[in-house]
Amino acid sequence: MIVDCKKQIVILVRYACFQAVISTIHIIFYDPFSIDIQDQNSYSSTMNKQDLIKHVLLNDTPVTIRPIRTDDSGMEKEFILHLSKESRYFRFMTSLRELSPKKLKYFTEIDYDRHMAFVATIMRDDKELEIGVARYVFTEIPGSCEFGITMDDAWQGSGVAELLMISLEDTARKRGFKTMEGIVLPKNYKMLKFAQKRGFKIHYVTGEDDTVHIALKL
């Protein structure tokens, strides 16, 4: 089921070592809609995008981990709509129900360098269905990026979030980032546990009781 046998071994070993329960994760990106990404395809055209695609089998269900595409806007919209109210709140820290066209455009247009996103998908009724997404965006701090990851409620705790983070962290590392950071709601206990298992350091900032900072050295 996996294209690259070497990748299969790495994925299966790393997944077997990870058994934490994974919940929807909310991270705030650095001012994403003010970022002006230039030459979006110039960097990605120099790399083999097929190397970023993984096919795995989880609980007898084929799952694909791949970079998000511009034509995934409809799938991304359905994914957000399908999330529970709580999951959307963790993701956006608001009662937002669906993404605006501007946000959909931003979420699906990546440059494979300063802005990268992976989706996890399955096939259902001959249609590709998104079950998770992980993303990083560069910040003004040299060598640092901020990330976010969200899982469909039915797939939380399945191990898919672990596979998405493996791809995201490896890609960020290869792009030269040294630190991956995020801000988490303090009541998102499962996220904090998940982050710690992935090696993130937890920082409680005085005067910021409504958020928790996390950081990973890549």
How does the SSE layout of this entry go?
Elements: H1 5-16, H2 40-44, E1 54-58, E2 61-67, H3 73-82, H4 85-92, H5 101-108, E3 115-124, E4 127-138, E5 144-151, H6 160-174, E6 179-184, H7 189-197, E7 201-203, E8 212-217
Parallel strand pairs: 5-6
Antiparallel strand pairs: 1-2, 2-3, 3-4, 4-5, 6-8, 7-8
Number of helices: 7
Order of helices and strands: HHEEHHHEEEHEHEE
Q: Helix fraction?
A: 25-40%
Total E-strand runs:
8
How confident overall, as mean pLDDT? 80
* CATH fold category name: Aminopeptidase
> What ranges have pLDDT less than 50 throughout 5 or more consecutive residues?
1-45
Please name the CATH architecture. Answer: 3-Layer(aba) Sandwich
Structural class: alpha+beta
Give the C-alpha Rg: 16 Å
Query: What summary fits the major beta sheet?
Result: 8 strands, mixed
Counted up, domains total: 1
Shape: globular
Strand content: 25-35%
The neighbouring-strand order within the major sheet is 1-2-3-4-5-6-8-7
CATH class: Alpha Beta
- What distance separates the N and C termini? 29 Å
The CATH homologous superfamily corresponds to: Gcn5-related N-acetyltransferase (GNAT)
